[in-house]
Structures are given as structure tokens and as C-alpha cells.
Specification:
The longest helix has 18 residues, at 59-76. With 116 residues, this protein is an alpha+beta fold. It is globular. The protein has one domain (6-105): HIT family, subunit A, CATH 3.30.428.10. It has helices at 6-11, 59-76, and strands at 19-22, 26-30, 38-44, 82-85, 101-105. The protein has a 5-stranded antiparallel β-sheet with strand order 1-2-3-5-4, with helices on one face.
């Protein structure tokens, strides 16, 4: 059995985190190595290692995550300009293999670049 990810440990209360939102499907925390003044991680409770490993049964969850990103952006007042990033695999910069969405805001992102 593989060891639980840091995100699972946070959701289980084993590791402290700055939790901004949580419900039965997901949790939103502040990133501990922010790449923008606002850098949050929206993490599904279901441990999907990478986006490409999501299945047909995950459609509803993935849609709920995208809607929750919008809700969180509105609540934080950054809904006019923010970026959502999902890294898929080590070559794309994924370091924790538990699907998560980066929400970045309060930074000018240049066209055509990732901005970080």
C-alpha cells in the first residue's frame, strides 16, 4: 500500500494547513510556496494521482472543482483576473501525485507565458 500524500494527511488533520474552504468533495488551502500573491490549491478528497488518471466516474467531481474555483475567486474578489493550473506528471512540474488545481491571482500574467 502506498503512503498517503501530503494532501491526504492535511485532510486527515495529520499535518496543519491554512484551510480556506472545505466540503465533502474538496478542500482549498494556501500554497506554502506561493508563485503569486494569491496562490491556493483546490484538492479533491478523492485521491486521483494525475488528471489523466481521472475516469468517466470522475466527471461530476471534475466539474464541481471547476465551479468551486469560480466561487472561491468571487469570494476573494479576484474573479476578474486569475489563472487555474493543473500540472500532470513530473515533467510538467507536478510534485504531489494527488490531483490539485492551482488558483493564482493578484499578479500580472503575460500573454503566452505561465507567469511563473
Amino acid at each position: 500500500m502506498s503512503e498517503a500524500s501530503i494532501f491526504t494527511k492535511i485532510m486527515n488533520g495529520d499535518i496543519p494547513a491554512d484551510i480556506l474552504y472545505e466540503d465533502d468533495d474538496c478542500i482549498c488551502i494556501k500554497d506554502i510556496q506561493p508563485q503569486a500573491p494569491t496562490h491556493l490549491l483546490l484538492i479533491p478528497r478523492k485521491p486521483i494521482a494525475r488528471l489523466v488518471e481521472a475516469s468517466e466516474e470522475d466527471k461530476l467531481l471534475l466539474g464541481q472543482l471547476m465551479l468551486k474555483v469560480g466561487d472561491i475567486a468571487k469570494q476573494l474578489g479576484v474573479d476578474e483576473a486569475f489563472r487555474v493550473v493543473i500540472n500532470n506528471g513530473a515533467g510538467a512540474g507536478q510534485t504531489v501525485f494527488h490531483l490539485h488545481l492551482h488558483i493564482l491571482a493578484n499578479k500580472k500574467f503575460d500573454e503566452g507565458s505561465l507567469g511563473f
